[in-house]
Amino acid sequence: MEIKDLFTRQRKYILTLLAVYVLGYGFTSNQSVFAGLIFGTSLSLFNIWLLARKMNSFGDSVVQGKKVRSLGSMSRLATGALAVIVAMEYPDRINLVFTVLGLMTAYIVIMIDFFVQSYQSRN
């Protein structure tokens, strides 16, 4: 399966979750919780986009026999650090714990998508 197809499907799932979080932000009194989820999940979507882009260039490099570069772990870690710094700077507006949970959203979506696709391919 193409990385592009995986990313497109996972992006749809994450955008759906973001829509639910925005509704939660607008219609509940837990605005800092949902702001943390929105912020963390948005950066998580950015991280998954970076990963998909790096994996495409990684595959192209392998096919062409070029030297293989990193998959960008440092930039994804820097994004996580940025999220934590911002959440700690504005603790009254952005909940730190839910920001970190939001950062993990893409990886949870990747795992769930893997299990769903594995199940569907067996049946």
From TrEMBL:
Coiled-coil regions, chain positions: none
Pfam families reported for this sequence: ATP-synt_I
Keywords: Cell membrane, Membrane, Transmembrane, Transmembrane helix
Membrane-related topology note: Multi-pass membrane protein
TM ranges: 12-28, 34-52, 96-116
Major subcellular site: membrane
Highest taxon in the source lineage: Bacteria
InterPro entries to which the protein is assigned, alphabetical: ATP_synth_I, ATP_synth_I_Bacilli
Localisation per UniProt entry: Cell membrane
GO CC term, one of those recorded: plasma membrane
Designated name of the protein: ATP synthase I
